[in-house]
Amino acid sequence: MRHRGFRVVPDVGMDAAAAADAHAARRVAGANTTIAGERASNAGVVLFSAVLFAVCFCAVLAVAQLAAGGIGVVAVTVALVAALLAVSSVHIAQQWEKVVVLRLGKFNRVSGPGLFWTMPVIEQNTMRVDCRVRVTSFGAEETLTADLVPLDVNAVLFWHVWNAKAACTEVGDFTRAVELAAQTALRDAIGRAGAAEVAIRREQLDRELKRVLEEKVAQWGVTILSVEVRDILLPKELQEVMSLEAQAEQRKKARIILMEAEQDICEMMDDMGNTYARNDAALRLRAMHLLYESVRETGGTVVVPSSFSEGFGDVLGDNAKDLLGKVRPEV
Questions:
Q1: Taking a C-beta distance cutoff of 8 angstroms, is the pair 329, 304 a contact?
Q2: Furthest-apart CA pair in the chain: how many Å?
Q3: Helix 43-68 and helix 73-89, axial crossing angle in degrees, nearest 10
Q4: How far is CA 13 from CA 29, 88, 222, in A?
Q5: Please, which residues bridge with residue 33 across strands?
Q6: Do 52 and 87 contact (CB within 8 A), yes or no?
Q7: Is 95 exposed, middle or buried (0-12, 13-18, 19+ CB in 10 A)?
Q8: Which pTM was predicted?
Q9: Which residues contact 200 (CB under 8 A, 6 or more apart)?
Q10: Which residue did the predictor score with more confidence, 313 or 148?
Q11: Contact status, residue 41 vs residue 34, Cβ threshold 8 Å
Q12: Which of 58, 66, 80, 139 is the most exposed place for a label (fewest CB within 10 A)?
């Protein structure tokens, strides 16, 4: 997926020309709809119509040759009219197309895909509807939020036509109608929320836009597949304020975690103090352990008075007391 982030809008410190260029560069593009996927060619349909015209024209001339023994102006005219009627009555719709057929101005049927027939003059192919997924990019430029912050938001809409009859008879230009409905829904959603809410709760904004658009375009035979907000352009001043707010929140969390750690350490030291107060031997053993750790970590030599071993008489064995007794103070 494309990266979705904030972009800083240049605002001050530029001359008139540079400011105009920057403003043009940051404008959100207007609504634009394209068909998702590769563009297909209609060369096969055109070739079929040309071949059908030639075959009908030659067949009528052949019949005139056999019947009248020659080809005149009347035979050519009849052959031309017959070929045109054949071409206008036989049609091909591509796999992704639906064709709305009207009979004397009234809806008759939806034909396609594949080969289908119509009655010349009486029936008309009013509209060929592409039922593939369409991609509409739209945006809301300098739209005020609930806290009066101007935002430029750019989004993309995925949709397709599922009812060709409704798309043809219920709305004049369903593509343009979907584009305008998407822009209106986006502006309304931005106006009901604050700038921070719009920037942070993108998924919620996507779901809200999808729900609103589904309700609005369902009567046009259109299905909304998904709505995705791509870019949110924030003023530079607002971005700095939001950055300071985020930093303050992180410092707050760090202080809380530090105080909780100190509280745990204090409770543990209180328990250790109570234990050492009840047992002098444990306290002396702890002192020996700390002495040993300091020697082991630094690799140095600790000099203690010979009377130091007397304090461990009740907790040390004979070998340990003899070893401490051999230690002499060094000057």
A1: yes
A2: 145
A3: 150
A4: 25, 65, 47
A5: 136
A6: yes
A7: exposed
A8: 0.61
A9: none
A10: 148
A11: no
A12: 66
Predicted confidence (pLDDT) per residue in 43-68, tens digit? 888 899 899 999 999 999 998 888 87
Quote the tokens at residue 19: 């400011």
Residues of the chain with CATH 3.30.479.30: 6-19+26-36+132-237
**pLDDT score at 6:** 40
Joined together, the tokens standing for residue 207 give: 């779901």
User: What three-state secondary structure class fits 47?
Assistant: helix
Q: To which residue do tokens 């071409």 refer?
A: 87
Q: What angle separates helix 202-217 from helix 174-191, to the nearest 10 degrees?
A: 140
> Taking the CA of residue 127 as centre, how many other CA atoms within 13 Å lie in the half-sphere pointing to its CB?
18
Tell me the β-bridge partners of 157: 136, 227
- Report the distance separating Cα 9 and Cα 232, nearest Å: 10
Give one DSSP letter per residue of 62-114, joined into a string: HHHHHHHSS--HHHHHHHHHHHHHHHHHEEEE-TTEEEEEEETTEEEEEE-SE
Confidence check: pLDDT of 306 > 80: no
User: Tell me, what amino acid is at 9?
Assistant: V
Contact 126/79 with Cβ under 8 angstroms? no
Token pair 């052949």 is found at 62
- Comparing CA positions, the residue from 222, 192, 224 lying closest to residue 207 is 224
Q: What is the DSSP track for 203-236? A: HHHHHHHHHHHHHHHGGGTEEEEEEEEEEEEEEH
Residue 166 vs residues 98, 127, 222: alpha-carbon distances, Å:
12, 12, 8
Decide if 143 contacts 151 (C-beta within 8 A). yes
Q: Considering the domain 6-19+26-36+132-237, what is its CATH architecture?
A: 2-Layer Sandwich (3.30)
- What is the token pair recorded at 202? 């993108």
